[in-house]
Design goal:
The complex is a heterodimer of chains A (227) and B (84).
Chain A lengths: L1 E6 L6 H10 L4 E5 L8 E6 L19 H11 L4 E4 L1 H8 L6 E3 L7 E9 L15 E8 L3 E3 L2 H9 L3 E6 L18 E5 L5 E4 L16 H10 L2
Parallel strand pairs in A: 1-2, 1-3, 3-4, 4-11
Antiparallel strand pairs in A: 5-8, 6-7, 6-9, 9-10, 10-11
Chain B lengths: L1 E11 L6 H12 L10 E10 L2 H16 L5 E9 L2
Antiparallel strand pairs in B: 1-2, 1-3
The chains are: A alpha/beta (227), B alpha+beta (84).
Chain lengths: 227, 84
């Protein structure tokens, strides 16, 4: 039983994800997208990067690769799936979750640490936190602005499917604390199954103590623990 | 079979923020141009052989549905013309 980290041409957080997972005691292996998923995979990470050079739209091409059919099937069977950054863009494009991540309000690539308010603890990814906790994770994206029609987002909120919102250090969800113009400051959501998540911030870059904060470790542990 | 060019135009839905267009508009203003607003769109010209203009349109629409546009944020339109 092992977590598959799917590497596309252009992925660049794939090895970080494996290393971070191993650091929290989870078996993880890189899987080249053309090789398909290994059997009895216990979890799937779609890592960050620039699959297909972000051509057309970030994540658009990778979302239509055959391996994503396998990911969708596994997700339906309850295998936990975590899409991080480019993986989140791919997850939305592949309809693992609703919504789209598109061009930042600034129209620039942004690489910085952000504060996130925990919005629900009823998911494996956030079960280790309390609702309202503020966690700090890095972002690094040019297309991270979450978009979804208002009525769809209403429904998502009613179903308690927002994982994190961008906030200030006190936990206040304000426009000033919104790095990319995401609708209602949404940074990550879960799919219809609460074991499928997409997230623009990088938990795997905040797991090893030697690179700064370690708030991401709980997200990865929760993900792997739900397998 | 006849040769056609299907032109697929993909644009953001009304009300969806377009930071690249806003940046472009500001750059035009810096050059001294007067303008009210600016919208941008992606245009794909797809050459293909098909039995009829309807068949070419249908194929291009499917291309838009399955890859070229993202229905969450985009509208698209298709125009088909016979190739010279």
């Amino acid at each position: 039983m092992t977590v598959a980290v799917v590497r596309f041409g252009g992925s660049n957080c794939d090895r970080d994800a494996v290393r971070a997972l191993e650091h929290v005691g989870v078996d993880a292996e890189l899987v080249w997208y053309r090789d398909g998923l290994p059997e009895d995979v216990s979890g799937i990470v779609i890592p960050g990067g620039f699959s297909y050079g972000d051509y057309l739209r970030a994540g658009a091409m990778a979302a239509r690769d055959p391996i994503m059919e396998e990911v969708r099937e596994a997700a339906t069977e309850g295998v936990p799936v975590l899409g991080i950054c480019n993986g989140a863009q791919i997850g939305c494009e592949a309809s693992l979750t609703p919504g789209a991540f598109t061009t930042n309000r600034s129209a620039r690539f942004q690489c910085e640490h952000v504060n996130l308010r925990v919005e629900t603890t009823d998911t494996p990814f956030t079960a280790a936190f309390e609702e309202g906790d503020v966690v700090e994770l890095p972002i690094a994206h040019g297309e991270g602005r979450f978009e979804l029609p208002d009525d769809h987002l209403d429904r998502l909120e009613e179903e308690d499917r927002v994982l994190f919102r961008y906030c200030d250090s006190e936990g206040a969800v304000t426009d000033g604390a919104n790095p990319n113009g995401s609708k209602r400051n949404v940074a990550g959501i879960v799919g219809e199954r609460r074991t499928t998540a997409v997230l623009m911030p990088h938990p795997e870059r905040a797991t090893l103590p030697d690179v700064g904060g370690t708030d991401g470790a709980a997200v990865l542990r929760g993900f792997a623990g739900s397998a | 079979m006849t040769g056609y060019t299907a032109t697929v135009t993909v644009r953001l839905k009304h009300g969806v923020l377009d930071p690249e267009a806003e940046t472009t508009a500001r750059a035009l203003e810096r050059l001294g141009f007067e303008l009210e607003d600016l919208r941008s769109a992606d245009r794909f010209e797809v050459d293909m052989d098909a039995d009829s203009a309807e068949a070419a349109t249908e194929r291009a629409e499917e291309m838009a549905e399955r890859l070229l546009a993202n229905p969450t944020i985009h509208d698209y339109e298709v125009e088909v013309a016979e190739r010279e």
